[in-house]
Amino acid sequence: MQLFISPTAGENAVRVARCAAEFIRCNPGSLLCLAAGDTPLPAYACLVDMQAAGEVDLSSVFYVGLDEWMGLGSETRGSCRQVMDAHFYQPAHIPEERRAVWNGHADAEAECARISAFIEAHGGIGFTVLGLGMNGHVGFNEPGTGLSLGCIRVELDATTRSVSAKYFDTPMPVQWGVSIGAGTLKAARTLVLMADGSRKAPILHRALAQPPTDAVPASLLADHPDLRVFLDEAAAAQLPPEIRRT
Fold first, then answer.
1. Strands, E, within the chain: which ranges?
2. What is the mean pLDDT of residues 237-245?
3. Fewer CB atoms inside 10 Å of the end CB: C or N, the chain?
4. Average pLDDT, rounded, for the chain
């Protein structure tokens, strides 16, 4: 694990964007998986700016969606598809044929098969950017799901359902999600985990400084050979010195 701690979340986002851009420049044609949560969006904005400055060609790679709320689609502000369209795919001018995104209205089993086939067809995930849920989830790999391979349909944890309210204009009765499984995410060549703010400090301690457990899904990724963790000072506050030195 490589740990990068920045004074602010904004500086953290710039560092993640530079990391992603370097991977894209060195690995054209590879597959990226980008989370749609609030934390990584500033990094995606930096990538769009870097493309405008001629520093990276974001259409030189392929993209696969990490997850989606079942029952929601691009028409719902706050769905994963809507967020990524608005904040990355459209500003970056990513052609539709270079991305596979979840359809929350479709049959879950068929969607899992479709996304899994896209990942396999592109040689697996090369680079992924993940956020960290308050319960330690990555994507919709909720507590207890383990290192699932392929893609999964998941009943959302109570914490996830509660936190979901911040994403939507009006409350949504979300109960299920679909996601790339943690086992397939862990098979990515480079795995980036982002978190910021003091509210994430306790779960980061459990994920990075305590033994891995199914109860904290992110902890199952901690031994990835190329895990890069980007935190601001507030999120890193509870990590012990031996972890902060990595």
1. 2-6, 31-34, 62-65, 67-69, 99-100, 127-130, 151-155, 176-180, 190-195, 227-232
2. 87
3. C
4. 95
Give me the CATH number covering residue 100.
3.40.50.1360
CA–CA distance, 18 with 214 (Å, rounded to integer): 32
* Residue 22 annotated to the active site: no
Catalytic, out of 137, 141, 196, 232: 137
Q: What are phi and psi of 204, to 5 degrees?
A: -65, -40
137 is catalytic: yes
pTM of the model: 0.94
Q: Clarify whether 232 is annotated catalytic.
A: no
Q: Active-site residue among 142, 157, 196, 232? A: 142
> How many C-alpha atoms does 119 have within 13 Å on its Cβ side?
29
- Work out how many domains the chain is built from and give that number: 1
For residues 161-175, average pLDDT? 79
Specify whether 103 is catalytic: no
pLDDT the model gives residue 246: 60
- The answer to whether residue 165 scores a pLDDT higher than 70 is no
How far is residue 216 CA from its own chain's centroid?
A: 16
- Taking the CA atoms of 124, 138, 140 and 173 in sequence, report the sign of the dihedral they define: negative
* Tokens describing residue 141: 């790999």
- Asked if residue 156 has pLDDT above 80, the reply is yes
Host domain of residue 172: 2-244
Average pLDDT of 136-161? 95
Distance CA 9, CA 44 (A): 13
